[in-house]
Write a structure and sequence with these properties.
Length: about 180
């Protein structure tokens, strides 16, 4: 039976050196293309029995470097992330469930390209523990699958056999290590 517990008190902020937010999509039906965001922020807040997770990623920080034309198409182009018009990808939870066994289900609003859509991520919660320097750290490992067309990222190129060059489903993963701030 699932129960919601109150594993946190206060505000925990992201340790960006020990955290990763990544996306992955099938490419030409033979491999998975992965990229990360290097400029990310997140907070996990417990306030009056309510748990909230919120975070942002700067689109320009995506780890696509070369070739430059490809980076420009994905990062700045209107077919994909459109960073000039929408420099931030944001998430704010509307419901956080932490199970006794560490299972986590987080539903919230993911905003990409200025369009807000509800998603649900599932994964594992690691309760606070003291690190070697006396700080309290908590962790979340989350995974969600979304259809990129939900955010009007409809670009596609047919392969010679008629199949799609780029998958519609995008896997988003987050490994978050958070430090108690108050």
């Amino acid at each position: 039976m699932a129960t919601t517990v109150q594993p946190l008190a206060g505000t925990y902020e992201l340790d960006p050196h020990h955290s990763t937010v990544q996306f992955a999509v099938r490419h030409q039906q033979m491999s998975t293309f992965r990229a990360s965001f290097t400029d990310i922020e997140a907070r996990l807040i417990l306030d009056g029995g309510t748990i909230t997770l919120e975070g942002e990623a700067r689109v320009e920080s995506v780890t696509i470097a070369e070739p430059l034309e490809f980076r420009e198409h994905v990062v700045r182009g209107a077919d994909f992330l459109d960073a000039d018009a929408h420099p931030i990808i944001a998430f704010r939870s509307t419901r956080v469930e932490i199970e006794d066994d560490g299972g986590a289900t987080i539903t919230g609003v993911l905003t990409i390209r200025g369009e807000a859509r509800t998603i649900t991520a599932r994964g594992t919660y690691h309760p606070p523990r003291e690190d070697p320097f006396g700080s309290q750290r908590a962790g979340l490992e989350l995974r969600a699958n979304v259809d990129r067309r939900t955010w009007d990222m409809n670009w596609q190129l047919p392969l010679p056999d008629g199949s799609d060059a780029l998958g519609w489903d995008v896997e988003i993963t987050a490994q978050l290590e958070l430090i108690k701030k108050d």
